Amino acid sequence: MIKRKCFNVEEFGSHQSCLACACIYLLGQLGYLLGSAMAEEIGEEFKRSGFTFDEEEEILKRCVTFCVNYNLKPSDIVSSWEVYYLNRPLDGSVVELEQMDGFLQHLQNEQKETVIKGEPDLHVYSSKDVDVILNDENEDLNEDILKTPNGKSQSLHKERLDLTPYTNGGLFSSGKPSKHETPFGQRTEKFVVRFNINSMPDMVTAEKEDNSENDEDAIIKKVRPLQGCSLTVHGSGFGLEPNCRFMYDKDEDRFNALDNRIMRHAKALAASGLYEEAVDPTVASQRSMFAVGMIYCDGEGHLNDKSILLQSSIAHSGGQRVRLELQNLSQFSIFPGQVVGIEGHNPSGHCLIASKFVDSFPLSATIDPILPPAKKIALNHDVQPINQSSTPSELSMIIASGPYTTTDNLLFEPLTELLAYAKRKVPQLLILLGPFVDSEHSDIKRGTVEMSFEEIFKFEVLRRVQNYAEHMGPDARVLLMPSTRDANHDFVFPQPPFDIPSDLKLQAKIACCTMDILRHLSGEELSRNLTKGGTNDRLSTLASHILRQRSFYPLYPPAEGVPLDFSLAPQALDISVIPDILILPSDMKHFVKVISLGEGGSEEEQARCVCVNPGRLAKGEGGGTFVELNYFGRPDQINASVVSI
């Protein structure tokens, strides 16, 4: 038996042996060393993502605690911080200690969502449930709440076809009047502008005058003729038809689709005259070379400085990969699946050392004369006054992205109020992006509704939209685009479009994609910006990747849960020309930004695009945001507002 003086006589003096004391002390030291190593790794992950600290030691201690409590890896906690950072108006890239409490709440919400997704039968009770029980406003409602969640069945009667909004203390509902007012109906702030861009102030003044009309003027405005626009959805030629066969892609389909992307970029860069013909980057050479290939990660996890690989095309290198060294570059932003041009040298044949980085498709190049299906729409004014040829044409639109109902019910109150708002504003185009019947909704996941998903879509969504169109008249234009989260639609990406009547005239090119590519890219991007005056706008950088790569989903491998099918028209994801307006609905922070593309300094050498993330119309049990946009013929001539419903 080991006999040794206790490390802490007061605490362990009564022990017959000091072996237990030594073990406790050593375990404590081991925990301290492991915590220090984890803190160092977390700090490196933050700095690799471009973040710094105001009180580094204290912040890293908190982050270590978060990792231990929630079983997170250092890369996981940094990814969660990026989502938290991008969804809040935080200035700069400095992580501050006072932000940790809010970040902890964000982590707790993420853990709650994970638990609910893993156990769809689990119901997380809130104060709302207690209030309903205590108020005893409706005996039948109380009986339903007191039952187990599994036993509750929410009725959506087919007979409920009268969708005239019912007003109950500010509550818009499509069905029978309810004595219980939902959290959405109890909100105090309605249709508040959270952000706006006013490139045409004269038009804003006129709009304010319109908004100051009295009730009688508003009634006259409703019957005023709507200036129409024609709508063209380019969806033929790619085989994307409703009920098409999908998820039959083979390895050969995937390989060919990726190789074709590399070859298109290589040919376009060579045709621009700015770069040489691409060569094999795996061949050892002291001379400078130009290569085109796709970024890959060497192994599992996120990209880092030591895990970057470049795969060239079959024609240039037989599809071989070579390690890519970017240490000599002061600025870059990369992600797996990105097609880039690299100027550099490979003295050993094992590592391509880059001296120049090209990530943008030439503006003068086009991918295909046929526009992608369902992801690109074009619009044109039917009314063309002869005496207004010198004034810029205006295209007004409202853009919203689902979910269209709150998480506590399937009343579709946000959709009802959005359509009521659109009736007052009279936009030429209403763009509604899925999900409509959200597969993530708790009632949908538990299967506690009596109607099929198709019936919910028909009676709760389409009927409302049809009533809106009938109210607005024959010139009303509405675009509905599905999402992979729609329970009533094909779970495949790219998706077959809804069947919408089309015209053949063109005015403004609008590109849309309901897959959350911004969030997926944010978790995989590796960037560096050491140049003075360089932009630190992360959201603009993420959106610009879509345009520079000329693809709605340039990330490869795709994010977990994305049903990407390469056999189903991979060209449907191509962006043939730079659109005037690019709509990318995302769970990240809402925004409207004008993005410039091109390496030249003059306006003639650059292209501009209005990038829009309208946010989600419903968030939890409350309302979200949508975008109201007036386009005056050019991306730099817009009036746009992000409005909370």
TrEMBL record:
<dbReference type="Pfam" id="PF04042">
    <property type="entry name" value="DNA_pol_E_B"/>
</dbReference>
<dbReference type="InterPro" id="IPR043034">
    <property type="entry name" value="DNA_pol_alpha_B_N_sf"/>
</dbReference>
<dbReference type="Pfam" id="PF08418">
    <property type="entry name" value="Pol_alpha_B_N"/>
</dbReference>
<dbReference type="InterPro" id="IPR013627">
    <property type="entry name" value="Pol_alpha_B_N"/>
</dbReference>
<comment type="similarity">
    <text>Belongs to the DNA polymerase alpha subunit B family.</text>
</comment>
<comment type="function">
    <text>Accessory subunit of the DNA polymerase alpha complex (also known as the alpha DNA polymerase-primase complex) which plays an essential role in the initiation of DNA synthesis.</text>
</comment>
<feature type="domain" description="DNA polymerase alpha subunit B N-terminal">
    <location>
        <begin position="40"/>
        <end position="101"/>
    </location>
</feature>
<dbReference type="Pfam" id="PF22062">
    <property type="entry name" value="OB_DPOA2"/>
</dbReference>
<dbReference type="InterPro" id="IPR016722">
    <property type="entry name" value="DNA_pol_alpha_bsu"/>
</dbReference>
<dbReference type="InterPro" id="IPR007185">
    <property type="entry name" value="DNA_pol_a/d/e_bsu"/>
</dbReference>
<protein>
    <recommendedName>
        <fullName>DNA polymerase alpha subunit B</fullName>
    </recommendedName>
</protein>
<feature type="domain" description="DNA polymerase alpha/delta/epsilon subunit B">
    <location>
        <begin position="398"/>
        <end position="499"/>
    </location>
</feature>
<feature type="domain" description="DNA polymerase alpha/delta/epsilon subunit B">
    <location>
        <begin position="507"/>
        <end position="593"/>
    </location>
</feature>
<feature type="domain" description="DNA polymerase alpha subunit B OB">
    <location>
        <begin position="258"/>
        <end position="358"/>
    </location>
</feature>
<keyword id="KW-0539">Nucleus</keyword>
<dbReference type="InterPro" id="IPR054300">
    <property type="entry name" value="OB_DPOA2"/>
</dbReference>
<keyword id="KW-0235">DNA replication</keyword>
